[in-house]
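quick q for whoever's on today - can somebody do inverse folding on this one?? i tried earlier but teh output was garbage lol. tokens:
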């Protein structure tokens, strides 16, 4: 190994030892003699040097450090049964060898280890006092759904029209559960007034339809949240509209330019209504969610996934029956559950030279109207009249602004 790479490895190992040792020494109780800055630095240099000498020497060093750590823990266990310091010293020795082989990775890992050691009290406070049992249960369920169940499902279609895919259907369930979790965290962190709208905006990039349904459930469970939940649903539609424009531009820039003003007016009108509903929650009466509540309902997520899959299957069947002549009809039906997929079909209605006909422009409006209608119905079904009225006001403002601007700026 070139001397400059060896020097870099030694310096990186020394830095890791100094960093971890400093954090450990600051956490020591007064009068307690444990491995601190010097011990970690020396162990790091020892590990790096023996790694340069050969793998056998490095393994012997690790074994020697492990034996000494075990002997030290045997003496200190009656007073301090924790093993964090012992494992930190062993990890310092292991990272010193990694520093010689891959300095950037070792340095990054060392910083992460030091950070974990430093935030001992905040982590303990979060796990023991902030995080509730129900929230932990929800987090584990979400992780199981996303990391255990989802990868096991087949990605191939299981219906004659090749549109129903178990992987995609379960992904919708995971998305709805994730939206509920994000909204729950945002509310606990910042309160209901702006926590829900913020969560709504980011969840709209995933699925605004699912967001409208999930925030409707929150409004049903907690009527105090109706205004904030309505604003969250409208902000999710705003982010969905942003993604809608990006997809449309990627498919047909000419068509996007021809409907740019109507879409801009629609977004502005809806934002005004959303902000109005968000501000209606008085500061003195702002509702704070409690830690004992569930972040989402699995049955609600499953019902949404089944509904979306059913509409998608119906649209595929109509397309199969009527062929390409039914593209617009199919797009309007698809827009009931997935706005971005529908706009791709509409964008393909233009002529090859990029001059989009009026038919394609009004096709965009039809797809947008279909999405608005489905969200209005979903808002009433999931959140009741109060939530439905508020969401409808924003969505109607969106559609009206788009149609008026469409007629004024042909």
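ok took a stab at it. sequence:
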């Amino acid at each position: 190994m070139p001397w400059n790479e060896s020097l870099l490895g030694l310096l990186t190992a020394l830095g890791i030892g100094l960093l971890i040792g400093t954090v450990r020494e600051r956490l020591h109780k007064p009068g307690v003699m444990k491995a601190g800055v010097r011990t970690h630095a020396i162990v790091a240099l020892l590990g790096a040097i023996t790694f340069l000498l050969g793998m056998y020497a490095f393994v012997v060093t690790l074994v020697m450090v492990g034996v000494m750590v075990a002997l030290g823990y045997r003496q200190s266990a009656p007073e301090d049964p924790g093993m964090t310091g012992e494992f930190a010293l062993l990890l310092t020795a292991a990272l010193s060898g990694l520093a010689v082989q891959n300095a950037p990775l070792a340095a990054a890992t060392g910083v992460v280890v030091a950070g974990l050691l430093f935030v001992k009290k905040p982590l303990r406070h979060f796990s023991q006092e902030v995080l509730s049992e129900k929230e932990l249960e929800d987090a584990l369920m979400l992780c199981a759904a996303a990391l255990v169940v989802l990868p096991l499902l087949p990605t191939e279609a299981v219906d004659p029209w090749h549109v129903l895919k178990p992987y995609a259907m379960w992904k919708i369930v995971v998305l709805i559960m994730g939206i509920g979790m994000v909204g729950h965290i945002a509310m606990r962190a910042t309160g209901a007034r702006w926590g829900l709208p913020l969560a709504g905006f980011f969840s709209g990039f995933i699925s605004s339809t699912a967001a409208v349904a999930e925030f409707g459930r929150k409004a049903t469970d907690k009527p105090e949240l109706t205004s904030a939940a309505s604003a969250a649903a409208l902000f999710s539609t705003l982010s969905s509209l942003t993604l809608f424009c990006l997809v449309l531009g990627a498919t047909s820039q000419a068509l996007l330019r021809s409907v740019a003003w109507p879409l801009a007016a629609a977004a502005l009108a809806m934002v005004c209504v959303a902000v109005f509903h968000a501000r209606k929650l008085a500061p003195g009466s702002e509702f704070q969610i409690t830690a004992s509540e569930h972040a989402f309902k699995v049955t609600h997520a499953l019902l949404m996934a089944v509904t979306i899959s059913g509409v998608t299957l119906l649209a595929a069947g109509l397309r199969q029956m009527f062929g390409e002549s039914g593209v617009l009809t199919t797009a309007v039906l698809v827009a009931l559950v997935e706005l971005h997929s529908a706009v791709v079909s509409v964008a393909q209605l233009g002529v090859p030279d990029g001059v989009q006909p009026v038919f394609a422009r009004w096709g965009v409006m039809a797809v947008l109207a279909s999405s608005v209608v489905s969200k209005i119905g979903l808002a009433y079904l999931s959140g009741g009249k109060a939530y439905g009225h508020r969401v409808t006001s924003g969505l109607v403002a969106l559609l009206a602004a788009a149609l008026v601007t469409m007629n004024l700026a042909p």
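fwiw The chain has 16 helices and no strands. also Residues 282-288, 351-356 have pLDDT under 50 and may be disordered. so keep that in mind when u check it
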